[in-house]
Amino acid sequence: MARGRASARVDGAGAWGAAPVSEIQASSKFACPACGAEAIWNPGKNALVCAFCGTQSASALKVEGGIIEHDLKQTLASLKGREMGFARAAIEVKCQSCQAISSFEPNRVAQNCEFCGSASLVPYEEVNEVLRPESLLPMKVAESKVREDMRRWYRSRWFAPNALGERAMTDTLRGLYLPYWTFDARVHAAWWAESGTYYYTTESYTENGQRRTRQVQHTRWSPASGELDHFFDDELICGSRGVHPKLLRQVEPFPTREAVPYDPGYLAGFVVERYQVDLGTASQTSQSSMEQQMETFCAQQVPGDTHRNLRTQQEHSGQTFKHVLAPLWLLTYVYRGKPFQVVVNGYTGKIAGEHPLSWVKIFFAALAAIIAAIVVISISN
User: Fold this and answer.
1) How far is it, in rounded angstroms, from Cα 130 to Cα 276?
2) Where is pLDDT greater, at 322 or 102?
């Protein structure tokens, strides 16, 4: 259900971003103050930590500041002059298998796709640069906790093959930032429908030679109309194609109201997926979702016991958007030639995954159920 505010009656933004970042910021890395090695974001300590000596960096990242809601129509009309890229030196590769586009630091060598495990990676370049996100949710769940939760998740999959739990599949765990679009809009809807009210009459009939009576339900139809206003707040549309949509829906929502201003330091040590669902496509998807939800809201406003022939006329105004990065832990593994994914919301810790089925276990479980049913029937007889 959409977040927002609604009101009903029944009758019978601003400029895009700040000044361009400097070349120093765009190419900067976060050096350890003790040994000079690169520091990466550590969710457990909520700070930049050296991966070599463990020293915690004193570098301050952006945690406060305004996050702007951008006018959707104005931005779609003209995307020139916007802040582009991720404000960090990065290499981008595209998977030839799942088509995901990943961005990571130059010193990291990518041998397999982070999303499907394929080794078919090619350098990716495109004339149209990506819109830079202005906010993100920092990775909050530590990798150590994610590994423990995944092992616990594996053990609870009763119909998974035993070999699945025995393998150290968490070695392929990766921390990612996924692109999301959020949309706000005020929607006014006028609706018309036929409202149905139930009433009952007594009917006589003959059964086995005896006269009986029963209550018969009828519907009295009458015209109805009304108006409804609703404000949609942060409707999420994922810009990723690398993570299976069904799994993402299970670990959503991401609490975007807790997002912080974008700072490349939060991305240190993580892979960032470049959005493949652009702003125009995402806005159309969001508007379609809002319209469907408004249909439901209007249906709830129709008086009576039931309704039919509902029609709505909707007007959208005050449409704004944000480009946000959301944290995710992703495990991709291949079992007998078939890829599977397990995902963990990097902010809330919610987990969802896919796994193969052991038909041997299913067969014996079904057999046990049949035997139990036979025993119960025998005892009752």
Assistant:
1) 9
2) 322
